[in-house]
Amino acid sequence: MDDDGLIFNFATTNIAAPKASVAAAGKGKSQRWRDRVKSRQAAKHEDAKKEQHDTQNQKNTAAAASFKEKPTPQRQHIKFDSGGAQENETQKQQQEEVERLLGEMGKGSGGKTSTTGTGAGTGTASLPSAQAGKQIISSLFTKNPEIPKLARDGGQELRVSSNAAGDASFAGLGLDPDIVGFLSSKMEISNPTAIQTNAIPVLLGNDQAAQDGETGGDDDAFNFESSMKVEHDVFIQAATGSGKTLSYLLPIVHRILRATQTATSGGPASRELGTFAVILTPTRELAQQVYETTQTLVNMTVGQGAGGKKRLHWMVPGIVIGGDSKQSEKARLRKGVTILACTPGRLLDHLENTQAFCVDNLRWLVLDEADRLLELGFEDTLRKILALFEERAGQRRRVLGHSSVATSLELPRRRINVLCSATLRDNVRRLADEALVNPKFVSATSVYDNAEQAAEAARSRKRDRLMAEDIEDGRVGKRAHAYDGEDEDGEAQDGDEGQGDFAVPSQLVQKAVIVPAKLRLVTLVALLKNTLRQQPTSKIIVFLSCKDAVDFMYFMLSHGATQADGEQAGEGEAEFADDLFNTEEDAGDKGDDAGDSKKSRSHRPSGGRGGPQLTATDIHLQSNVFPGVKMFRLHGSMQQKQRTETFLAFSREQHASVLFTTDVAARGLDLPNVTSIVQYDAPTDLASYLHRVGRTARLGRVGHAHLFLLPSEAAYLTVLSERGLRPQDESVEAILRLAAKSEGTRRAAEWQLRAAEWQLVLERFVLSNITAMRLAKQAFLSSIRAYATHGASEKRIFHVRFLHFGHLAKAFALRETPAQVAEGKGNNQKAVEVKREKRVRREREEKERKKPRFVKGNEISEFAVGDVSAYYGPRVRRGAGAGSDDDSD
Ligand SMILES: Nc1ncnc2c1ncn2[C@@H]1O[C@H](COP(=O)(O)OP(=O)(O)OP(=O)(O)O)[C@@H](O)[C@H]1O
């Protein structure tokens, strides 16, 4: 009947009119579909089906092989790389192909796409156009591609943590006793981690090399001091959650503190000396986090004797980030900010346009998540920033001597550059070569004199691991090429390759689930159920490929279960839907603050921190699908204020909660006590994998991470394994069975019925709720587009032509055919009308309120109670007016 493999197994009576049909399907018909599922399970056609699958799989493999591309030597977003243009071209071609495929769906052409082998099928491309206007209710458990048998070992057992604090002491590293005391009494931080143990002495200028009499620094005026300290620029590389932030912040605070304590002439330390340290981060949330940590640190009290302890009033942290009010930032910079956390676009803006921003005394420039800064294309901005700092440093020499603090021997004699990264990739190495002076490469295991030494040590660790694995598996020498960082043809591996393993915390339990597209949604629901039941205070992060998918999952898994069939969106939901439009555009929502670039300026409606108050439901929703659980969402297109508050609220949350997010939350964010990560959409590069899973298992704590892959993506596990990432295999069936069992399903065979029920509830919700329908369609289309952004080297695994659009639609609880979805392009006509009606009504009410009312004095009693706001003009609506902030960053 259909050639796309979809089966009409549920109520097949007319369900074209959503509300009526849903009610019908929901009441009295459940017995019927249950029977049908059962009988299907018992059907004797399994052999025939299997044969069909085998044929399909052969096609799939052939298709995959035909798309196998040699990895191009460079990655896509790194403009430092000469091969980027070629990759961008491939990217463009695929984007065009996606648009063409979506276009064909939209026209309902029904023609085959140009693909020859398409994995599980060609989705809508093969849908007969006669089906347009119908809904498809397909079985969850039939016509799925076979899940490949994975020749993997049992994966990793729980190991001793690799990023916990060790036995060394902060005092032993040379830190000020007041700082050490404050860390242990107020921050519960008693011993340094391995990376802190290695990095802090170097940044204090107290490392061994210094004692050996090495000289450093390039400032002739101060050569006479060179016997005191040796200054190195530093590259800090360590696993996620190992405490990199404090490894650079503590020496900065210590040295500024010492400079003020030892100053013997001139005025006291003051904000007027301007900015001593700039910390640049790729995302606003990370900048926020660095700012908060600095804020905590400068709350310490220092000093002793007659004067007693004093707060560090003059050491002032600050933050300047895109999306915030530039005027208030200017005011803060004018007063003076000692340690500044910022994103690159906004920093450059202030350097160029804020006269009062004083960086004459700048002594540290830290690039946190340096590799990501480069991937986001900030290298030109960084160059300009560096040039401006150089220019101002000249001015500093002229003012030296006017301030004793600024000339203190405790401070570095030149600006120290610090690069932080969890990986040692080619792009950061090149930046290190270009920007670092007299550098040290500091890892958790050692301190190296140059990048090559560090890379060789990493390669050697990888060699040892591969050999040990091969010996264990009885295949010694089979991967000898990889021992030397080459691919199978003997060519040097690109970018990430050849640089050693990706280090994830050893106590992280990684799992991979191969999930057929149709089962993705219910498997996610089941996995969340299981995790929340096993650990009732779980904090879970679900990573998705695009903001539309985030909005959809957040909305559906918050409201999904209770919405009665046919019920329209409630007022609260309608407001939420409105808010979804009230977002900040960013450059394709790659997840980070690409929106910091000029591209997005004109679209930002609002932002400033001083904007209107947000209510609790702007930050989180109570889930009806998972009772008692708070749902959060975070992506780059939300208003800045909402982003910041969501980040802070999820960070502080102590109870069961789920955060749906894009890669905006993947990097550097320290969200305490996250117990579990779900990568519902695979990451678009290996480094993202590392950073996403790194949001859990921090500082020695146990964490769990699940990666969802389609059957056609199973080869990704080999890619991971080559880099030392070996997730355990977990089956969809095991997850669904466990969730069914926890709901009281007694008979083992009924787990499929349970799963079908969950899917049905969500599909009905989407059918009956205009907002959910619109979000589902947008999410479906955007996810396909996002799929096309996988790098060229991974196209043989993640190619949009391997996707079965029809099956994928089910993962968005859609019953419409992909053609119908594409035709509507997500703009549900009814939703648009409702929105228009609401706007008209609102405008009418507003007009009504604005009408001048001539009130006689005695009309308002001085004892009147109730709402007199009408007399004082219209209330400012949420979001209104905030757009007057200068949004350009
Ligand atoms: N020595 C320590 N002992 C205990 N906790 C610490 C220590 N150092 C840092 N922490 C805490 O550990 C958490 C993680 O630190 P941080 O965010 O700096 O890690 P990171 O290495 O930068 O991670 P990522 O690579 O993910 O950005 C923070 O909450 C921090 O306060």
From TrEMBL:
InterPro entries: DEAD/DEAH_box_helicase_dom, Helicase_ATP-bd, Helicase_C-like, P-loop_NTPase, RNA-helicase_DEAD-box_CS, SPB4-like_CTE. One of its GO terms (molecular function) is RNA binding. It is an enzyme of class 3 (hydrolase). It catalyses: ATP + H2O = ADP + phosphate + H(+). Residues 225-442 form the Helicase ATP-binding domain. Its EC number is 3.6.4.13. RNA helicase. This is ATP-dependent RNA helicase. It comes from Coemansia interrupta.
